[in-house]
What does this fold into?
Amino acid sequence: MSAIASLAWKSLLNRKGSVLLTLLAVALSVALFLGVDKARTGAREGFGNTISGTELIVGAPTGSVNLLLYSVFRMGSATAEISWPTYQEIADRPDVDWAVPISLGDSHRGFRVMGTTTEYFDHYKYGRNQPLVLAEGARFADLFDAVIGADVARDLGYETGSPMILTHGLGQADFGSGHDNRPFRVSGILAPTGTPVDQTVHVSLEAITAIHVGWETGAKNPLADTISEETIRSFDLTPKTVTAIFLGLKRKGTILTTRREINTNRGEPLMAIIPSQALAELWSVTAIAERALLAVSIFVIAVGVVSILTSILTSLNERRREMSILRAVGARPGHIFTLLVLEAGLVGFLGALAGIMLIHAMLLVAGPMVAERFGISLIGTGPGLTDLFTLLAVTSAALLAGAIPAWMAFRRSLADGLSIRL
Amino acid sequence: MTDAVVAISDLHFAWTPGTDVLDIAEFRLEAGERLFLRGASGSGKSTLLGIIAGVLEARSGAVRVLGKDLAKLRPAARDRMRADHLGVIFQMFNLVPYLSVVGNVTLPLRFSKTRRTAVQGAEEDEARRLLARLGLEDDGLLSRRVSDLSVGQQQRVAAARALIGGPEIVIADEPTSALDANARDRFIELLSEEARRTGAALLFVSHDAGLAPHFDRALDLGDINRAGVTA
It folds into this structure.
């Protein structure tokens, strides 16, 4: 057996060129598969880590995924708002520890603007209960202060102190639809989180009310610009409505009870969702695409294994001679079979090994960049069980594929005997 | 006449049923004998060697190699018989391209414990010794790729391989047909000498009747084969 193994090894070395190409095909396919798998795992984790520490999210009745989408992912929009008195009612509930209101609807050059209270920065957590951290500056203190996410700062080149003009609605700034009479100032920039927070402009709830003075009908009142900043500051800017409320409970055990009570609220109709449940529901939707991607990369591996088969099959004719020499010096047909199967297995094993090393080298280099840009943490996905399993699976598949040419050579070596057929 | 290493009687062999290629009443190769078997191309020489080597099976008749009837052996046992007791030299392209010169010579030892134990001392040393006796002792030559050797040199490497581990029978199928006259005579001399030294019986097959004087005995396949082969 070891004699055959050493023959297989030497035979591969002798065909370095074509063997290296096959190795490369296998390595790339394995790297692709593991890359997809790791991105998938990272994305799922990052996704599940978008919000933590918040027990319930309350909004107007809609689908739970929809509520999650607009309140956490800033996607889509609310069908209805919650009135301020109802917010106060919820916040005053004895089982509620904290209640942070958010108000959405405006944007700034493609980034959503969210009105909230400074408590948001205390209570919104992501990942493993990580808090939001200011990379520079401070929370909003003045009416026209804004705290921007890391992506906003990077993409728009803002620093603390930069002025910014918000847009009414969610489109790009159209002429006349801007809140250009109410310029804001960047007071702080948040450190990257890899969550939608990075793409959000945070202002106070009062600021949202303030910029809508003169917009009560839904369009800009021609007289809106005549109201001076001082006048606005003197107004009662308590919002009339909020879009959603993030809730923290005093005792986690009451989540279901609290949720039911809010859902069956006798006043304004409300809906409360548990973020982790809604996240799982949302993920199950995206999981289809994710699985399709995985299926594709498995097929790519299959192509890699087939390339091993092809390279051995094409070499079989020119090696017919070699087989009859081996037979003549005493190799049994079983030896010939083993030789070819081993060659295929070796190529599969080495290719998969190279692919695993390739993807980990790439993760090491690109991991930090991906984590910052896309919020997908690929770090900590060092060589693991998946890699080992992939290595074993590819090697076994290669051994199986090798059995085909090996069987052909086996049959042929029986028929050829010692005769010289070229 | 008990020590024939190959004894064939009433052998019939056909590639396609009904048209015998070989029909041999009797054929013997004595121990240590150097036998020249002449045969035109297509006369069934290679087929006969295949039968003796145990890779082809006769349709009927007895083929005894070292006293054992090949027909009664299982394929694996025939393979072991060949590995242990037979050295084979082909017409050309005798060597495995990815093995070194010495690696090619020691190749049979990987498949036969009998021949491995017959080698005294290190396998590589034995290979080098055999190669030196066959006129290949230059270290530079031995480190070359086998495909870079001349045909004559390749055939000598093949001869060393056939002889290593002292098999009882060496069969050579037109080993000199690619060599010029000088190289051919030298090759046959060296091969005969080494076969005599190791005590191997040599069955040398060629179409060239002119080689017969180099051997103890000469046979014409046309004379012993009753099947009318015309190819």
Remarks:
- The first strand of chain A starts at residue 56 and ends at 59.
- Chain A has a mean pLDDT of 83.
